[in-house]
Amino acid sequence: MTTEEKYMQRCLQLAQNGLGTTYPNPLVGSVIVSENDEIIGEGWHLKSGEPHAEVNAVSDAEKKSYDGDVSRKRQYTSI
């Protein structure tokens, strides 16, 4: 499994957290990855009408990041 496939697999796992609450939106998971290939933020779409997985992953990464800057990080999303 490639590194990218590993991140996408994690996105699919995270997406399952929204099962039963996101309709009519799809299940979506997202991760933010540092320059060192470390997952520093994770998120999923919690509920229809609320922020999407990408936004939740960025918020999580900003909280955990030493400098709070996610502009140079990579984001993987399962949609």
Automatic annotation (TrEMBL):
Enzyme Commission number(s) from the entry: 1.1.1.193, 3.5.4.26
Keywords: Hydrolase, Oxidoreductase
UniProt-listed Pfam families: dCMP_cyt_deam_1 (PF00383)
InterPro entries xrefs: CMP_dCMP_dom, Cytidine_deaminase-like
GO molecular function: 5-amino-6-(5-phosphoribosylamino)uracil reductase activity; diaminohydroxyphosphoribosylaminopyrimidine deaminase activity
Domain CMP/dCMP-type deaminase: 2-79
Superkingdom assignment: Bacteria
UniProt protein name: Diaminohydroxyphosphoribosylaminopyrimidine deaminase
Native source organism of the sequence: Nonlabens ulvanivorans
